[in-house]
Design brief:
The chain is of the alpha/beta class. The chain has 16 helices and 27 strands. Strands 8, 15, 16, 17, 18, 19, 20, 21 and 22 form a nine-stranded mixed sheet that branches. A hairpin with a 4-residue loop joins strand 11 and strand 12. Helix 15 packs antiparallel against helix 16. It is globular, with a radius of gyration of 23 Å. The structure holds zinc ion. The site of zinc ion (ZN) has 4 residues, from loops.
Length: 550
């Protein structure tokens, strides 16, 4: 295939722009002026006139959730038959009304699921209580996952089914939020949700594979060819602890064999499911495009539900300091087992104290194994961190996986973390430029688990630190903006599981992993970046998504 008459952005400083590119057997065969490349055509060659469209190295996403993206896409297509989508719900009452309407159509006892509610959209930082849901659906257990996928809002019927009462002790790795008298409030943080999750049917094998297929297609449509699936979040969108892994992987293998997946997926298996993988009972090479590469650990929770572990009380709720999901000893044990079995480790750490604990564990693991590549150890999010820990992440050489899109300012120019930490304490939050200056190894990701955002949303957020409306005018903590070149590198280089980097640059011999865009993100006007369209995605020369351009 020859792509001609375009703006091909090679990211190769020796030859940054060419007009044409030839692909042979999945690899780039030639780059150069249109005339020169077209001279290579044979009778079998397909020539695509790009008409000035822009070609870049394909995008990579180092942390998202394929099944969950797929469920969101399927749910949208089925008019929310699977669960209520609550992203746009503007009040507690609106959520309750939607639950009431659904309950009216379903026999008593039927579960009602929902996802992506956010109390900030209700105009408050305070988490809701079960009362409105209990009144709306007294006979149906209701389980609504917060937008952070780390906590749930349930009604009295769900608490009853799960056996959670005023005398239930705090579960391991989670919190049951309570009303002043000690009654459960209806908010379950982190692993406290598991008592409820055990009570409803988990998705079927068919639902799991169908959501994986739908998720992979939606991801390819973003211009992406390579991802890390950072733990399975099956229906309704919270970390699974009881997935039948062997059956799931068999089904995925058949899926990839029946029709090659449009993205290469590197799977991270959550620790609770990792036993069989570490013992070698489940193969780590699942299929040509699927493999298990990491064990995923969760050190703490998330800011929105105040589950991120802080070294001090939350500024907007001094009774809370967050929630650990595992002990340091457990982390040490999983890290050792994973590294010794040849896997990498990726640890979710959002609060500053969780970042410290994770780096402590990594530092000890690396001291005991001086020969391994430190980038086999990844820290996910590193949202709030003490300056000494930002330095330490760089010094240890671990891979730091960041989500620029987590910086999402509200109309007042502040982000949710300003509330949780206090605006005076948020300057070390999402400190991307500081990390870069310190020499940290950075990988970019969206952490998508709902229907994908705009394909360049995370790129835009990294360079502007503004919301899509351009607020605040100078960006949130603008000193932490990244350059366009750095931000693009985050999403075009690929950090391989063993610690090496597959460079982004397009050069003869490199795999033809490409995205065709309507504009060049390196030069487009800032306000038009989020209007860029993905025309096509190619994985090793195979068209995995097209709007008809190719
Ligand atoms: Zn995630």
């Amino acid at each position: 295939m020859i792509l001609t008459n375009g703006e091909i952005v090679t990211l190769d400083p020796a030859r940054p722009r060419v007009a044409a590119l030839a692909i042979r057997q999945g690899r780039i065969a030639a780059l150069g002026p249109s005339q020169e490349v077209e001279a290579l055509r044979t009778p079998e060659t397909r020539v695509v006139d790009l008409g000035g469209k822009v070609v870049l190295p394909s995008l990579k996403d180092h942390h998202l959730h394929v099944n969950a993206v797929g469920f969101a896409v399927m749910n949208r297509a089925s008019q929310q038959a699977l669960r209520l989508e609550l992203t746009d719900a503007a009040s507690e009452q609106e959520v309750a009304d939607r639950v009431r309407r659904r309950a009216a159509r379903l026999p008593p006892g039927t579960w009602i699921f929902g996802a992506a509610w956010n109390q900030i959209r209700f105009g408050t930082q305070a988490l809701p209580t079960h009362h409105a849901l209990t009144a709306a659906a007294p006979e149906h257990p209701v389980f609504l996952v917060r937008v952070d996928a780390h906590s749930a809002w349930v009604n009295a019927a769900a608490l009853r089914v799960a056996g959670i009462t005023r005398t239930t002790p705090e579960p391991y790795g989670g919190q049951i939020r309570r009303l002043p008298g000690g009654e459960p409030s209806g908010i379950l943080i982190e692993r406290a949700v598991e008592a409820v999750m055990e009570k409803y049917a988990q998705p079927s094998d068919a639902e799991l594979t169908e959501s994986f297929r739908a998720g992979a297609a939606a991801i390819a449509a973003q211009g992406i060819t390579d991802v890390y699936d950072a733990a399975f979040l099956p229906f309704p969108g919270i970390v699974a602890m009881n997935l039948p892994l062997e059956r799931f992987f068999d089904a995925l293998c058949r899926l990839d064999a029946a029709e090659p997946l449009p993205v290469r997926v590197n799977l991270m298996v959550p620790a609770a499911l990792a036993g069989a993988v570490l013992r070698g009972q489940v193969s780590r090479e699942i299929s040509p495009r699927l493999r298990v590469t990491h064990i995923k650990l969760f050190c703490d929770g998330a800011f929105g539900s105040r589950g991120a572990a802080l070294s001090r009380p939350y500024d907007d709720d001094p009774a809370q300091r967050g929630c650990y999901r595992m002990t340091r000893a457990e982390m040490d044990d999983w890290i050792a087992r994973a590294l010794d079995a040849g896997f990498g480790v990726a640890t979710h750490a959002i609060g500053d104290e969780a970042v410290t604990r994770t780096l402590d564990a990594y530092e000890a693991a690396l001291a005991a194994r001086p020969d391994i590549n430190p980038r086999r150890l990844r820290i996910e999010h590193i949202s709030d961190a003490a300056p000494r820990d930002l330095e330490r992440a760089a010094r240890l050489g671990v891979l730091v996986c960041i989500q620029p899109g987590f910086v999402w300012p509200e109309a007042d120019g502040l982000i949710m973390e300003d509330w949780r930490l206090g605006p005076a304490n948020s300057m070390n939050t999402y400190a991307f430029a500081t990390l870069e200056r310190l020499g940290a190894h950075l990988a970019g990701s969206s952490d998508d688990y709902l229907a994908p955002q705009h394909p360049l949303w995370n790129f835009y957020a990294a360079i502007t630190r503004k919301n899509p409306e351009g607020i605040p005018r100078h960006g949130w903590h603008p000193q932490e903006k990244l350059s366009r070149a750095s931000a693009l590198r985050l999403f075009t280089e690929f950090h391989l599981p063993g610690g090496d980097v597959r460079p982004a640059a397009l050069a003869p011999g490199a795999p033809a992993d490409l995205v065709v865009l309507s504009a060049n993100p390196l030069t487009a006007e800032e306000s038009s970046i989020l209007k860029t369209r993905v025309h096509a995605t190619l994985l090793e020369g195979r068209v995995t998504h097209t709007d008809g351009t190719i």
